[in-house]
Amino acid sequence: VADSVKFRNRRYSPDGKRIYFYTFSFSFFAPLGIKGRLLMTEKDNMSVTKKLAGTGAFAALAFVVSLLEFPIFPATPFLKLDFSLTFILLAGFIFGPMSGVCAAAVKELLRFIIGSSTGGVGEIANFAVSVGFIIIPTLVYRFKKGLPVVIITLAAGCVMQVLLSLVANRFITFPLYMGNIAAEKFAEWWY
Predict the structure, then answer these.
(1) Higher confidence at residue 110 or residue 115?
(2) What is the pLDDT of residue 13?
(3) What does the alpha-carbon distance between residue 1 and residue 10 come to, in Å, rounded to a whole number?
(4) Mean pLDDT across the chain, nearest whole number?
(5) Buried b / exposed e across 128-150, counting CB within 10 Å, b at 16+?
(6) Are 102 and 138 in contact (CB under 8 A)?
(7) Alpha helices in 26-173 (DSSP H)
């Protein structure tokens, strides 16, 4: 018989008779909770506090670096070079894939709160694209480490990022900016 867990003066049994409310109320980073260890291996002995603090630190670094954007081409000022994905990727490598996803979410949320020139549309698309880039390398790195594996999975992450950029532009960015005309324009351009 599995041991029951006591949390905030309530007992929860792990046999499925009760829902683990404490996993969802533990923190904003629910996947890093005590029992809800999503995508973590059994060898993982890093404390939850350390992961939360590290994820928060990398999210803060990513946010600060994201304020230092550089236009790629002067003719298109909306295309900017952003180095904040480096810190999100490091959070994913060090603390796990869900930490990277949470760091990306916090960074985009802070960008939206501080002031968004896109009304949140760009932040949603950037979050989807960032997750697409970091998820493959960080997932594979949890189980197989080494520089050759990292290089191959980063290349796969770049391909995933490009594919998700196309999907995000087609279904998020253009429809929210252009309205009903977006479907007609994409029909002209892609079909």
Answers:
(1) 110
(2) 57
(3) 19
(4) 78
(5) bbbbbbbbbbbbbbbeeeeeeeb
(6) no
(7) 48-66, 85-95, 97-114, 121-143, 147-168
Q: Checking phi first, is residue 101 left (phi over 0); if not, alpha (psi -120 to 50) or beta?
A: alpha
147-168 vs 121-143: helix axis angle to the nearest 10? 150
**CA 172 to each of CA 79, 93, 126: distance values in angstroms, whole numbers, following the listed order:** 17, 28, 10
Residues 6 or more apart in contact with residue 161 via CB below 8 angstroms = 129, 132, 133
Placement of tokens 């493959």 in the chain: 136
Measuring CA to CA, which residue among 130, 123, 88, 95 is closest to residue 109? 123
What's residue 68's pLDDT? Answer: 87
Q: How far apart are CA 59 and CA 85, in angstroms?
A: 10
Distance CA 179, CA 183 (A): 8
pLDDT for the residue 177: 76
Segment (H or E) for 176: helix 174-178
Phi, psi for residue 6 in degrees, rounded to 5? -105, 130
Residue written as tokens 């999100």?
88
Q: What is the DSSP string of 144-161?
A: --SHHHHHHHHHHHHHHH
Task: Tell me the two tokens of residue 50.
Answer: 């350390």
What token pair was written down for 23? 């996993």
